[in-house]
Amino acid sequence: MISLHLPPKLITINLQSRLFLSLIYSASFLFSLSLSDPRITQSGLYCGNSKSTVPIPTFTKEMGTLSQLITTSHFAATNNLNHSSTLTFYALAQCHHDLSQTDCLLCYAASRTKLPRCLPSLSGRIYLDGCFLRYDNYSFYQESVSSSFDTFKCGNEYLDADDDDKHLEFPTRVGYAVGNVTIQAVENRGFAVVNVDGIYALAQCWDSVGREGCRGCLEMAGKAARGCVPKKEGRGMNAGCYLRYSTEKFYNNGGGDERNARGFSGLGIAIAVVLATAACLMLSIFAAYASYVRLLKAKRERDNLGKVPFSFNKSSLNFKYEILEKATDFFSPSRKLGQGGAGSVFIGTLPNGETVAVKRLIFNTRQWVDEFFNEVNLISGIQHKNLVKLLGCSIEGPESLLVYEYVRNKSLDQFLFDKTKSRTLNWKQRFEIILGTAEGLAYLHGGSQVRIIHRDIKSSNVLLDDNLNPKIADFGLVRCFGADKSHLSTGIAGTIGYMAPEYLIRGQLTDKADVYSFGVLVLEILGGKRCNAFVENSGSLLQTVWRLYRSNRLVDAVDPCLRDEFPTREASCVLQIGLLCTQASAALRPSMAQVVHFLTNNDCEIPPPNQPPYMNTSLLETENSRWSYSINSLVSNGPTEVEASSTSMESSSMHSSNGQIRSEESSA
Fold this sequence. Notes:
Blueprint: H1 15-30, E1 42-47, H2 56-69, E2 75-81, E3 88-95, H3 101-114, E4 124-128, E5 131-136, E6 151-154, H4 164-187, E7 191-196, E8 199-205, H5 211-226, E9 233-237, E10 241-246, E11 259-260, H6 265-305, H7 310-313, H8 321-327, E12 336-340, E13 343-349, E14 355-361, H9 366-379, E15 390-394, E16 401-405, H10 413-416, H11 427-447, E17 462-464, E18 470-472, H12 501-506, H13 511-527, H14 541-550, H15 568-581, H16 592-600, E19 653-654, E20 661-662
Helix pairs in contact: 1-6, 4-5, 11-13, 11-16, 13-15
C-alpha cells in the first residue's frame, strides 16, 4: 500500500492546484507502483587479514560520522587520523540511486550492523543489494578496480532447460543488457537501470570514482557478471562499482531511466497515452476529488488497523493521529525533546490538559506491525514506579506513534555530566536512583507476566521525575524490531560501552546483558564520569575503578562533587556491586533480584568481583575518545533503531585474563 498523507492546509487549495493534483492521481493509476524495498540482502562480506587492528572507538566514531552524512545523501565518505599513532581510518558508504532516502537509511543501517563482524581487522567491506559500506587504513575513494578486491556472485537458479530458444538467446540478451546499462551509467553520473526483453540490469558506481574509473569498473564487473550465464542472476562487485542482472525485476521505479535498449518508441507511446487519458479524466476526477480523499483515508485506516487484532481498534490504548498531531503543534521543532530509540520524541498536551511524550516512529510495515502492537497491549499493562508508563499508540497516520507519560526532569545524564546540576545530586539521591533502577530492571526480568530484556540501559534512558525518582524508558519495545524471542541469538542493538561482551561479540542475549549495562551505569552515577571518558595514564572508567579496587582505594572512585559527604563503607559496597555486574563472564554476574538484595541488606556479604572486560588498552583510544555511539542508530538526526535480520557470530572466545575480548571466527 502506498499512503499519501495530506496536511489540513493542503485541502484549502485553489482550483488550479486541484486540477494539478488530479493529474497526479490519474497518472498514478496508470503506472504500476512497487512497494518500497531497501534491498538489504547480503551479497558479500569480506574482511581483511592484516595483523594490525582498528580500535573499536575509532570504528564507532567514524561510522557515526558516516551516519550523519548519509542522512541527506546517497553517498558519504570520511577519514580520521589518530594522532596518537600512525593509524589512519577511511570509510565510505554508497546507496544505489533508485532507493528513496528512507530506504537508503534502512540499507545503510543493515550494513552498519553487519560490518562490525570484521572487527578488529583493519579493513572490511560489505555489499548489500541496495548499498555498499567499506572501511580501510588507506585512501581508497578513487579506487575503481583491484585484482585482489574485485569479486562476483552468481545466483542459484539456472534458466529453464526445456526452452532451447531462450537458452540460445539468453547470453545475447544478458550481454546486451549489461553493455547498455554500463554505457548509460557512465553517461548518467554513475547510475542506470535497463530492461532488455525481460533481462533487468542495474549499474552503480561510487560517487568518488571519476567518469573513466566508472567506465573501467563497470566493464570489468559486467564481464564477471556475464560469466554467470546461464544462471538467472549475476552480480559483479568491484572496488568502485556494483553491477547486477536478473530475470526478475529487482530495482525500484522512478530511480533511474528504465529504457528498452531496442528503442524509445515504447516510452513515447506510454507518455502520449498517459497525457491523453489524463486530459479526459481531469474533469471527472476533479468532481470526485473530495470523496476520493475520504475513501483513501478510510482505506489507509482499514489497512493499518486490519493488521492488528480487531479488539485493539476499540481499545483505550488507541489514540487518534489527528489528536496527537494537534497536541504536538503538528510535530513542531520547538516541541521536540530529543532523538532516540526508533524516532523523534515530542512534548504534547492532550485535549484534557494532560502532558505526554509522543514518540514518532518510522516503522510501519507488515513484517513487524502484528508483533509491535501485541507488545503495546502487553507492555501497557506493566506498571511499576520505576518504569515510564506507556499510555498507548496511534496507527492511523502516515507513521506510528507511541504515547508515554511525560517525565519533567528529563534524563539522568543531563544531571550527572553537567557541572552545575551534578552538584545537586547528593549521596542519598544517587543511591536511590541506583536502587530504583535496579528494582525496575528486576521487575522487567521476572516481576511481570513476561520476561523483558531492555538491551539499552544507560544514563540517557533513565528519566527523573519531580522528586528525582528514576524511571526506565524505552523498555521492552526493542523486541519488536527483529529481536529473537528466545533471547539467545539476535541482531546487535545497544550502545557501545554499555553492551555486554557476549552480546557484542556473538549476539547472544540474556538478562545478564542488562545486568552488565546496569553495572556500568552504577559506576557512572557514583563516579560522575561517562563510561566512555578516558583518564590520562589510567584508561577507561571500568579500568580505573578496577585498579582502585585492587589497591583497596575503591572509595577514591566516588565523584569529587560529593566532597566526602557520603558513607565510606556503603559507597565501597555499591561500587563493588557495580564491578560484580560488569564481570566478563555472564554466569558470574548476579541477577537483578540479587542486586536489589545486596543494595537493601547491609549485612549481606558481597562476593569479590573478577576483572571486567576491555582492559587491554591497545584496543582503546586515548584521552577523550568517545565510543558510546548507538550501534542500532542510523543517524543522530534521522530515523533510528533499524535492526538487520538476526544472525549470530559464532566461535568467539573471551579472554578475561588480560581483559581483551576477541572474536576468532564469525559466521557470514
